[in-house]
Amino acid sequence: MNFRIHALEVTDSTQAELGRLAAAGAREGTVVTARHQRAGRGRRGHDWWDAPGLSLLCSVLLRPTASPATVPQLSLVAGLAVAEALAASAGVAARIRWPNDLLVDGGKVCGILAEATTDGAAAGPVILGIGINLDQTEFPEPLRGRATSLRLATGRTQDPDTVLAAVLDRLAVRYAAWQTGGFAALRPAWLALSTLPGQVVRLPDGTAGEAVDVAADGVLLARASDGRVLRIVSGAAVEEVTAHAARH
Fold first, then answer.
1. What share of the chain is helix, strand, coil (3-state, %, to 5)?
2. Is the dihedral of CA 227, 208, 116, 86 positive or negative?
3. 78-136 pLDDT, tens per residue?
4. Which of 59, 61, 163, 210 counts the most CB atoms within 10 A of its CB?
């Protein structure tokens, strides 16, 4: 994959900026980075906080040729790729918390937001948003005690260009493997870096369950309090926006 990087100082959201480029026909591999976001977004509509200049904030455009049903697996693919990139660039052992948060020493160091543009039943472009805490030494409430940074983990400052290069390198490798072999080809590597089994997860009815495994199709297997093992799709689902909304 050939990447073309649009580096911005400040933007409302790298996701929104790349969404506009995608709607205008940008090719796969287009990347938007920013040193600060005024309105960064996380999963489930949460805000994404960043201190200006201390994070790696980027969004990557993918145009997969796989069936729409498999697109949610890209959330897991990205988590694996970034975990491997952090090991290569910063020497940290990140763990993947279902579905795609990355933890170092128990603190969240990276979040991933995958958004798929749909137009009826057809699969559209996927925008992977990746936020990595690089050089923060402290966090505001309520992140204090829950978040960490590569600087806190390693004791040294991080070069954002080095980390970005590693992320894009591993993403290209893992994305190519997924295109040919699906998540099944990546599942052993993903499980080796995950916090499963035993992770507490939210079940569709709102109760807590215990993660048991991830199936070859990327669906979480979780045990409910009554002992039933359920297939949980929502946790890994790529968040969807309509094609109309993506153009604005």
1. 30, 35, 35
2. negative
3. 999 999 999 999 999 999 999 889 999 999 999 999 998 765 566 689 999 999 999 99
4. 59
Residue 7's nearest CA partner among 137, 165, 169 is 165
Beta-carbon contacts of 85 under 8 Å, excluding residues fewer than 6 positions away, are: 163, 166, 167, 169, 170, 171
Main-chain dihedrals φ then ψ at residue 202, nearest 5 degrees: -90, 130
Q: What residue segments make up the domains of the chain, in order of their start?
A: 4-195+236-246
The letter for the amino acid at 121 is A
Query: What would the DSSP string read from start to end of 2-29?
Result: --EEEEEEEES-HHHHHHHHHHTTPPTT
CA distance 34 to 39: 12
Q: Tens of pLDDT along 122-143?
A: 668 999 999 999 999 999 887 8
Superfamily of segment(s) 4-195+236-246: Bira Bifunctional Protein; Domain 2 (3.30.930.10)
